[in-house]
Amino acid sequence: MLKKIRKINQSKYECLYVSYGSVYDNCTYCGLPATSMDHVPPITRCSDFNKKALDYNNFFKVPSCTQCNSALNDRVLYSIRERLDFIKKYLRKKYKNLLHLPTWEEEDYEDMDLTFAKIIKHKDNQVDILYMRLDHYPEDNILNLKWGTDD
Q: What is the signed CA dihedral for 117, 98, 131, 136, rounded to 10 degrees?
């Protein structure tokens, strides 16, 4: 019941948000395919703002993957740059063990057991994807978005 009430209250604020992209784009923060939109400021915080703050009308939402959107949750980070920095730190911390794996050459796989080589190749692929996510940055017009006044 509480979840339904919260959803109704949040939907009245949805009209304040300007979309920059869609769920069919890549995640603003890591470049993976987006599955949702990240609201800045978080839509769950809208009820905390006074009428004057709500009248600024420079709320925005950007494409986000599930992992980035969940990690950001309702954190009070009011610019894409702040949110991007948070996500980069979050990914480095979450996958620190993956980042410290040794790199393997193709000839190294030949000396390995077939099952072990498949596992190592899979981990190498995960590392490549992680580095792609960490190296991803949105275009400047998105990167410089922040909540506040337009002046």
A: 140
Domain definitions of the chain by residue range = 2-143
How far is 5 from 19, CA to CA, in rounded Å? 24
pLDDT of residue 19: 84
Residue of 76 and 46 predicted with greater confidence: 76
Among positive and negative, which fits the CA dihedral 137, 142, 148, 151?
Answer: positive
pTM: 0.81
Closest C-alpha to 39, from 55, 56, 63, 21: 63
Confidence at 51, pLDDT banded by 50, 70, 90: low
Q: Is 79 exposed, middle or buried (0-12, 13-18, 19+ CB in 10 A)?
A: middle
Task: Write down the pLDDT at residue 47.
Answer: 72
Range list of β-strands (E), the chain: 17-19, 36-40, 59-64
